[in-house]
Amino acid sequence: MLTFLSRGAAAALLALAALAPAHAADDATFIGLGGKPGIKIIVDHFVARVLADPRIKETFSESDMKHVGARLEEQFCALTGGPCVYGGEPMKETHGGLKITNAQFNALTEDLQMAMEEQGVPSSVQNKLIAKLAPMQREIVTK
Ligand code: HEM
Predict the structure, then answer these.
(1) 42 in ligand 1 pocket by Cβ < 6 Å?
(2) 26, 32, 76, 119: which has the highest count of C-beta atoms within 10 A?
């Protein structure tokens, strides 16, 4: 009986050990961005760059950027394995009527990259976040 129990315990430990590295890897990008405080700083600088960027700033003239920033923080946190739930609108619904072009999408991505660079985020981590956002291009670009 004792042998049986300890085998069971050993199996449970092995299963946990197998899960642990996978979990650690899952939030590596979130950690690389500096967790929630790091993401907040990145989003603040990103939003400031977007609002100063002559290629895209007009698109945001009617928007509540405090709200957009808060949704971006949730979205980046959730996408990178952090403990957050995205509570905003689906990308297609939010952007559908805005007639966004590929050039505008690229401009915004560049602003995000520069905000991350400015905060010293390693380029491997920058690329992970950009790769998570890339599939959204087909939902956001409609022109
Ligand atoms: C990967 C690229 C992008 C991501 C992840 C993204 C994400 C978001 C998020 C999370 C919101 C808030 C949604 C909500 O209110 O529930 C939002 C809103 C908005 N986005 Fe994007 N966006 C992207 C690209 C763009 C681009 C390229 C433009 C235009 C140049 C743009 C223009 C806007 C505008 C104007 C709003 C506010 C809409 C409103 O006032 O209701 N977005 N975006």
Answers:
(1) no
(2) 76
